């Protein structure tokens, strides 16, 4: 098993010799005998002789494929991963350097899924090295990380490598210095860590990628910018279906389908800052548009950090529009700490199940300047003879402190764990439609404004019928509620 | 020792690799073998050298012609030095180009031959062409050479109205360092631009001049000395979506009809884009007495950090701007710094937009400005501003007023929410019989 040594990209010289050796090796293989494959460090031009990939599904092709990728970088000739009945197998990461085009129409799999990169490190079967530029990985093939399906009840921490990783090995590699990365068409399945993890990259295109059975979220973040993700299909992820992680800017996720997510929300925008990872930076200027999310913990989830002894950093400029979110466990769309955000033109319905109460189609907590407009929210929550979910269509409250909170001033929410956030403020809820069309209604309120101290304006909405409508507890002075209740 | 199963698997895999090595040779131009398999008499030309020194124009042109005539795919050789061309390459009907490497304009040696269209690009889709695909992960580099443009229809003296091209796809390439436009398309029925990156060029992407049914999506356009993306002089039934445009000296995204042009930009959708650090985010404009744009839908975009304003509808008929998030636009050299600017337009709906913290570096930002500033054009009328959220949450504020300007005809401004501390709607706009009611000001 090879230690990952994906070195940072450096100025290269043409290495046509390696290519010639590679081709010679291929023809040697065709002559009849599969060459034994010796273990060697990755991301260097292998020593002579260069083995050819066997791709019988058993032999370790890591060294040979690494030679192919190195040759591709050196010669600019696309590396074509061989297409064979049993696929190619690697025991560790393939390092991808600048100016590499990889075309993979077959199967590339990790032989075993217990590869130990070390704690708090990330590698992928394809690992785009730091400072690399102009990398395209495309094709109709499949990357298989070997994770069992269904997964084991307990999986070891700090193990394994992911699908496609840019940056690292540190998790949260803000300064990876990578540019112009395209991932197109591939299916990434059975990955025991991140199916896709792109850090510190300027210019990212993720196009028509399918993710199935991944332990962690496919993600782009940590200093990445100018990012377009479209046509993504993500399912059976035991984390968030797709995430823009902290410190990302000018990014779009659109026309994607996220469903059957077992661990977290469907689509997430996060500004969190867990221990051991670089300090959080705002995630800002993001469009989440035209996606369909269902059967996740929540539909679309924007969250700011909630960390002890830090001042809250809000997501800033998040535009959630024209999405369809339904049948998620908790909420349809949730903004927890968002400044200058808007939620418009979305349809949210039938979210919430008996495991949680007080659900909402659209939930704002710690919203600082947010427009909620022209959405349709209906039939949220669940009710039967034994359960009444008390669902809300639209809910406005304070930041969701992990513990109780106090108010040193009306402008500040101070969580018991030390995190500090602005109060919910400057919220406008306009021209939405919210109702429960079921005979046995599970929606208790169409509009729930609860425990906020700054005025809220909710006008021109058409609310109900629900069990009660609206439900406003002690509305702050200056609030305006002028809505219509459906007869 | 290999087991028998492993040995058999190795043999099977080796056979696949043999097939692979025979069909995917490297370092040469590739066309699939269907032409010869079908008994066609055409002989493949010699491949381009692509050593960065040799002029590959002739060899590449021969391959393009061969690919078109045999309906095979021209795979441009990928080399370290790239393929050098000294003149535009002409792309005929039924051409499929796959380019994963670099093609560049010869330094001090690239020129459009005398008598050929000045609109020509390094790939020039000839008049009358049908079914053209140019795709790949490669790069088209104009090397900042005079006359270098990226991909263009040949056009005529007036910009390509008569090109009569149909069904073109441009996918995935990076186009950079063009002295002219990165992409310039005219007279084309049915074109798809997907995943292009265009940067560091005089102009970005121009689509128009009699072009219909263009779908431009997932573009990344940056560092453009003029406009980033333009529907130009007669684009119809077309869309730009899910793209990021930034750092343009000119306007980020534009629907422009130049003075003296009779063709109208109409029925355009501009949605879900992010535009920043440009002169203006999104703008429609008809210059001089050119006909107004008609049916422009600007929706769900995010415009921030642009130098003048977020969205401008100037000389636009039956247009709407909805669900856009415009913030942090405007800078001090300009007279107005609104989120949305409407001028000389009729039938306009502004709805469900967030306009926030405009007028950066000033104290004169606006949410919306309604003001006719184009001389000799119709006065604005049938303007509806409803359901927008306009506020400034900064200390100190850079915005002065929520809605400003003055118009000769009445407007309807209702159902909007305004943040605290800003001047209200311009009294001149609300003079009878205008309707300015049911707007809420937060305390």
Task: Characterise the protein shown here.
Chain A is 6% helix and 43% strand. In chain A, the strands form two sheets. Chain A has a 37-stranded parallel beta sheet that branches. A three-stranded antiparallel beta sheet of chain A has the order 32-33-34, with no helix packed on it. Residues 11-45 of chain A have low confidence and may be disordered. Chain A has 487 residues and is mainly beta. In chain A, helix 1 crosses helix 2. Chain B is mainly β and 443 residues long. In chain B, 60% of the residues are buried. Residues 11-28 and 32-40 of chain B have low confidence and may be disordered. Chains A and B meet through helix 1, strand 7, strand 10, strand 13 and strand 16 of A and helix 1 of B.
The structure class of chain A reads: mainly beta
- How many E strands of chain A? 40
Overall body shape of chain B: elongated
Helix content of chain B: under 10%
Oligomer: heterodimer
Through-space gap between termini of chain A: 69 Å
How many helical stretches of chain A?
2
Judging from the principal axes of the Cα atoms, what is the shape of chain A? elongated
Beginning-to-end CA distance, first to last residue of chain B? 82 Å
Sheet with the most strands, sense and barrel status of chain A: 37 strands, parallel
The residue ranges of chain A in which pLDDT falls below 50 over 5 or more consecutive positions are: 11-45
- Supply the number of helical segments of chain B: 3
Number of beta strands of chain B: 40
Give the strand content of chain A. Answer: 35-45%
Low-confidence stretches of chain B: 11-28, 32-40
Average residue-wise pLDDT of chain B: 90
Radius of gyration of chain B: 26 Å
Kindly estimate the percentage of residues of chain B that lie in beta strands according to DSSP. 35-45%
Largest interface: A-B, 81 and 68 residues
Overall mean pLDDT of chain A stands at 84
